[in-house]
Amino acid sequence: MFLRKTERRKDGKTHLYWSVVESRRLDNGRVVQRHVLYLGEINSSQAEAWRRAIEVFDDDAGASRSLSLFPDERCDLPAAEDSIVRLRLSQMRLCRPRQWGACWLASVLWRELQLDRFWAERLPASRKGTRWADVLQVLATYRLIDPGSEWRLHRQWFLDSAMADLLGSDFGLAEAHKLYACHDKLLEHKQALFSHLTQRWRDLFNASFDVLLYDLTSTYFEVNASDLPEGSKRRHGYSRDKRPTARNSSSPSSSPPRACRSPTRSCPATPPTAARCDPFWKRSRASTARRGGSG
Fold first, then answer.
1. Nearest CA to 22 among 30, 33, 31, 12?
2. Which of 6, 90, 94, 248 registers the highest number of CB atoms within 10 A of its CB?
3. Residues 259, 261, 267, 268: is their CA dihedral positive or negative?
């Protein structure tokens, strides 16, 4: 580990920010750096104290040598007991515990949805060997198990998980710039992904529907209250832009018993309702229509 200094100019002054960074060697011999701790703006004496602390930590941790689980000075065993291994329990310790079960289950779900095949065709490995499909699986697993920022995944979560073991890879999957760059590669496949997941839902659960409902948390229809008969429940809404004659009416929804939450779609606020919503419904029906059928 070492201290990294970053210079930034603000209001005509130069500010120095410090971080503790760890170098990690990958299986292919390349070295990548992991941000361990952000120290912020510290003075020179504090920086020197951190340097001494890191050097002492490296020596005590034995980074330059590997420790044996079974000490060489163990007692010699009789020939008749050559199948017995004696351990010094007082010298055993638990090293790098990590979450396995949830990561394994997320990997099973990933394969059950056939997302491994889907993304293998669309996110091939780069010329430098970056396995983008595996980077995406790490991101999706992280969001499923313990949602947080990509920065937290890079600094903490990946090393506390078994994703490297399950994917047969190393810390290269959690390099910060790869986590952010992976999102940029997904947008062009958005519609294909929605169609794929809808079809997998049908195949897995033999589901059928006329309209696939989307997240309606913030969905509403604006109605003209003056055109509604007395006693209509739609008269009791409220206007988001304070117009008393234009009430917002929540849309009650019905769905099949085995409904599936699907990605959100939205339509613009203007022009008139019929014109703006017609393309929206057509896209929704097209993306949820059964293959070979009318939807």
1. 33
2. 248
3. positive
